[in-house]
Amino acid sequence: MPTDFDRPGRTALDLSDKVVVVVGGGQQPGPGMGNGRAICIMAARHGAQVVAADRNIAAADETVAMIAAEGGRGYAIEADVTEVEDCRRIFDETVARSGRVDGMVYSVATNPPFDRETNTMTVKDFDYGINVNMLGCYHCNLFAAQCMERNGGDTTGSIVNLSSIASLKNEVGLNIGIMPYALGKCGLNYITELTAVQFAEAGVRANTLMLGPIDSVIGNHDSQELFGFEPVEVEQAYADVVRLKMGRGTVWESAYAAVYLLADESRFMTGQQIRLDGGAALVR
Q: How many domains does the chain fold into?
């Protein structure tokens, strides 16, 4: 890996020689865009061959079509992260088709239905939330890192796990702090650190991108669905805790942050929790 970071004219955040898997590269129905799709598009714009993995293959195919329309490269893989063999197959298929894995972004989350009055839910829904938010992350981190350690060079791969300040604070205006979501993200934070330590000698890096009030499909949908908010109420809830005058962040800002963590410029960063939350976690 060239480290000529001071060279005039050097292309910043160049991913042109990298294969990047985005788990959650489709998105759930609804207006707007999700973080996973935005990261796919942004990584492709920076030259990566992008693999959009998603349970909803139609949504992943749509992401790939958007990439192709801009002249980018990519393909889709259907996979359910609650199934360990599906997680393994994502990376087996990527290596078979592309020869290697250089980056992986875990951008999958769910908020199962719950009873608002008692903050309770069925065991089935709870287990599903943990499986998606945490165990899927563990399996994808493991299989991705095992692929990356076979790459050559001093920095062999980068893993980016999308977390939330729900793992730090439980306030409606900040996050959807429902148990399997918040607990799952707490586990994801720790999985990232374990991955960073376990695979450091192989040159694999792992970092957490901890999101706050981002204007995304899931953030808007779940705020309205779980708490009965109207769209204007969602905006007000977030405005109460984000004091920066520009308001909520966008999925494109999430995407740029993810691209930095995938790129060689972040080669000396691993095991970190990077907050992209407009300072919301600082509000008491």
A: 1
